[in-house]
Amino acid sequence: MPLRSDVSAQLSHRVRRFTRAERWVHRATATLMAVCVASAACLYLPQLAQLVGRRALVVTIHEWSGLLLPAPFLLGLASRAFRGDLRLLNRYGPHDWQWLRRRGRGRAGKFNAGQKLYAAWLAGAVLVMLGTGLLMWFTHLTPLVWRTSSTFVHDWLALTLGVVIAGHVGMAVRDPEARRGMRTGRVDPEWAAREHELWLPDSERGAS
Question: Which residues of the chain have pLDDT under 70?
Answer without folding.
Answer: 1-12, 201-208
